[in-house]
Amino acid sequence: MKIQNKKVFIVGLSFILAAFLFVWGFNFLKGKDIFDRERIFFVEYEEVNGLVTSNPVMLNGLRVGQVKDIYFHPNLKGSLIVMLSVHNKFPLPANSVARIFSSDLMGSKAVDLQLGDSEQLLQHNDTLLSAIEASLMDEVNAQVLPLKNKAESLISSLDSLVIIVQTILNETAKDNITASLQSVSSTIKNLERTTSAIDSFVITEQSRMASILYNVELITRNIEQSNSEISRMISNLAALSDSLVHADIASLARHADATIQEMNKLMSAVNEGRGTVGQLMVNDSLYIELEKSAAELNKLLEDVRLNPKRYVKFSLF
To answer: Within its chain, how far is the Cα of 103 from the centroid?
Structure first.
């Protein structure tokens, strides 16, 4: 009887142990350790981008928990509440962010806990800030959209260019282009003739140009040889300038002004007939007498010429 009871006890214990191992293994496969005390945090998202329950919760690349539940907000406005189960006891600042991101190339989602810098720590059942990583499509759109806009702008520019080319290539424009090309050709020919004429002139006047260059060289040498003389002249001019600067110009001006005033007085006296010079200037009696004397002298000389014997007596013996 005792042996039978012992077997029943062993079977029951084995069943309980197997059930425990099954529960523990099931939770272990789900990423949940039944021996660790979990902390629950809530995050509100506008959308979860494919996040489902049992997706991992990561902290600095280490799995610290999993998504426990996802349901609509009780206010029924469309936002979603994600319940996070965190088994790690690492302290989380109050301004930490729970960011949904793609954990692999297949698009599997996970939640990354980005630590904040607040001194206050999150407690069990607190709410985290939310963020969502841009999807691959959003990233591609962000990269492709500027290229798309540039391509559209380029296509518009090409359309405008095609219209301009079509406008240019009409019959009138073709005639104008032909005339322009002919004018350019004529201009090039004129330039060729001018160049040829210049070459001929250079060949013809080569000796003369050489002589001119030689004379210019001689002038340059003379200037170089006279450099000392030019320097001396410049020094003399500088000395003269210094002398003029230090000269008493004001005193000279005053003396000159006084002299001019005296000259003005003298000229006024002469013009008014005062003094001998003034009488000579305004009184013509002296002129008249001189004219009379000159006339009498002329008469005397004429009489001497006509009657020399009257005035000169010759005696030979």
So the answer is: 47
Measure the CA–CA gap between 29 and 51, rounded to whole angstroms.
18
The tokens of 95 are what?
């301004």
Q: What are phi and psi of 90, to 5 degrees?
A: -65, 130
DSSP 37: P
What residues does each domain of the chain span? Answer: 1-30, 37-133, 249-310
Helices 275-282 and 249-272 cross at an angle (nearest 10°) of 50
Residue holding tokens 């789900």?
Answer: 30
Q: How many residues does the chain have?
A: 317
| Beta pairing, strands 39-45 & 127-132 | parallel
Q: 82 is written with which tokens?
A: 């994600």
Quickly count: other Cβ atoms within 10 Å of residue 81's Cβ. Answer: 16
**pTM to 2 decimal places:** 0.38
Q: How far is CA 43 from CA 108, 203, 263, in A?
A: 19, 96, 116
Looking at residue 117, the DSSP 8-state letter turns out to be: -
Helices 206-225 and 171-204: crossing angle, nearest 10°?
Answer: 70
CATH dotted code for 37-133: 2.40.30
Whole-number Å distance between alpha carbons of 131 and 114: 10
Read off the pLDDT of residues 176-226 as tens digits, 9 standing for 90 and up: 777 777 888 888 888 888 888 887 877 777 777 778 888 888 888 888 777
Residues 6+ apart with CB under 8 A from 93: 115, 116, 117, 118, 119, 120, 121, 122
Q: Residue 116: helix, strand or coil by DSSP?
A: coil
Return d(Cα 10, Cα 4) in angstroms, integer: 10
* Diameter of the chain measured on Cα atoms: 228
The structure tokens listed for 257 are 């002004």
